[in-house]
Amino acid sequence: MGGLASIGVPGLIIILVIVLIIFGPKKLPEIGGAVGKTFSEFKRSTKGLMDDDDEEDKDKKDKKETVETNKTESL
């Protein structure tokens, strides 16, 4: 159950130092921008998927209500 959440602040600092050593201070802003764009695109995509699911659920509910209304009217 570890995952990314169990890294903690000291682990993040160590990772940041390693990234700084590997890529250097000049590349760090460029890498940060790329990571930020990637996360925002991912967030936008998942929001779109969630909105699609909500629309499908609403359509199913509307169809179910229509069927139930038709059954009641035919009685």
From TrEMBL:
GO terms for cellular component: TAT protein transport complex. One of its GO terms (molecular function) is protein transmembrane transporter activity. InterPro entries: TatA/B/E (IPR003369), TatA/E (IPR006312). Its main location: membrane. It is a single-pass membrane protein. It is found in: Cell membrane. Residues 46-75 are annotated as: Disordered. Residues 58-75 have a biased composition (Basic and acidic residues). The chain crosses the membrane at residues 6-23. Gene3D superfamilies: 1.20.5.3310. It comes from the Bacteria. Keywords: Cell membrane, Membrane, Protein transport, Translocation, Transmembrane, Transmembrane helix, Transport. One of its GO terms (biological process) is protein transport by the Tat complex. Belongs to the TatA/E family. Part of the twin-arginine translocation (Tat) system that transports large folded proteins containing a characteristic twin-arginine motif in their signal peptide across membranes. TatA could form the protein-conducting channel of the Tat system. Forms a complex with TatC. This is Sec-independent protein translocase protein TatA. The gene is tatA.
